[in-house]
Amino acid sequence: MKVSARTDYALRMLLELASDRSVPMTCEAIAEAQEIPYRFLKSVVGDLRRSGLVASQRGCDGGYWLSRDPANISVAEVIEAVDGSVLTVRGTMLSELGYKATAEHLDMLWAQLQSYVDKLFATTIAQLAEGRLAANLPGRLTRADLAPAR
After folding, report:
1. Which of 3, 26, 108, 149 could cysteine-pair with 63, CB 3.0–4.6 Å?
2. Which residues contact 36 (CB under 8 A, 6 or more apart)?
């Protein structure tokens, strides 16, 4: 599975916006804080705005802010806003796949993957900001699990 730069940048932007909801943040400030190319972030924020995840205001006091509580914005929503469907096979929705002969059970693999992805990507921006993932995930990792092997 490949996670696009658009998804990564969108999630980082929303986490930045969730960190201080008292004032709007500019794209410049977010790009600098997250070390994201400003022009790329501007195209991502357009998708987030059109999907209703962020709101914006022009002018001296302008910027962007979350349009909903971060506890009500899931990772899946963010991915769909900037990249479309979360999981497809060859660009086809899983429900539209049909396998024959020796591959007839391959759809079970994709269905199991979809089930796990749905649970994981139900994680909200608020949970991510707190360092938590959605509940009921098998084999949950800790920060220590992410450390490079020595």
Report:
1. 26
2. 9, 12, 13, 30
Rounded to whole angstroms, the Cα distance separating 56 from 113 reads 36
DSSP-based three-state secondary structure for 122: coil
pLDDT of residue 138: 62
Where do the structural domains in the chain lie, given as residue ranges? 5-129
Amino acid 50 reads R
Judge whether 66 and 38 are in contact, CB under 8 Å: no
Residue 99 region by backbone torsions, left for phi larger than 0, else alpha for psi between -120 and 50, else beta: beta
Sign of CA dihedral 109, 110, 111, 113: positive
Q: What is the rounded distance in angstroms from the CA atom of residue 23 to the CA atom of residue 141?
A: 33
CATH tag, 5-129: 1.10.10.10
56-71 pLDDT, tens per residue? 988 777 789 999 999 9
Contacts of 42 (CB under 8 A, 6+ apart): 27
> How far apart are alpha carbons 28 and 63 in whole angstroms?
9
- The two three-digit tokens of residue 13, written as one number: 């932007």
The overall pTM is greater than 0.90 = no
